[in-house]
Design brief:
single chain; mainly alpha; about 0% strand
Length: about 180
């Protein structure tokens, strides 16, 4: 009998051959790292400055510094222009999502600075309210994209165009920044 771990390993992770599936999977990771962020202030209050906290912070920072911006770039370069070109009345929604990307980045920068200061021992606790606001906004943003952006992209963008987009998405991750 297969264990649960074996079953989850048997399910292949999405690849850039299926870029919309990859974008959905990125949102699952966003939710995972938001959960970790939400738990940090309470964990720190109970356990203080520890290696576990520093390792968790390092993983969170790595994700939101590298994968998060690449994910937004994928949407902005691969999906937004094609959707607006094919459905001009979608421009307002695309503009809103683009503005949310900018706002999320600004909110992340504030949290990032706190995480770095905590890691250096210059800060004893994190601003739980700022973290909660960031994670709430990010979850809501991801849900809006899953409810509207990705389905619309699946309807308006051809399989060939998505395949080409997936190649560009993969290249963005292998090209030095």
């Amino acid at each position: 009998m297969l264990s649960l771990d074996a079953l989850t390993r048997a399910i292949p992770a999405p690849s850039f051959d299926e870029p919309l599936d990859m974008l959905y999977a990125c949102h699952d990771k966003v939710r995972h790292f938001c959960e970790q962020l939400d738990a940090l202030p309470g964990y720190i209050a109970s356990h203080g400055h520890s290696h576990a906290v520093l390792n968790t912070i390092a993983g969170i920072v790595r994700y939101f510094e590298l994968a998060g911006p690449a994910h937004h770039q994928d949407e902005e370069q691969e999906l937004f222009p094609l959707i607006v070109a094919r459905q001009p009345d979608a421009a307002a929604k695309i503009k809103q999502l683009l503005a949310e990307h900018g706002y999320l980045h600004a909110r992340w920068c504030a949290i990032h600075d706190q995480l770095q200061a905590f890691g250096r021992g210059e800060l004893a606790e994190l601003d739980a309210a700022a973290i909660a606001e960031f994670t709430r906004l990010y979850r809501e943003h991801a849900q809006r994209e899953e409810d509207w952006l990705f389905p619309v992209a699946g309807q308006l963008i051809s399989e060939d165009e998505l395949r080409d987009a997936g190649k560009r998405m993969a290249a963005r991750r292998t090209t030095p920044r």
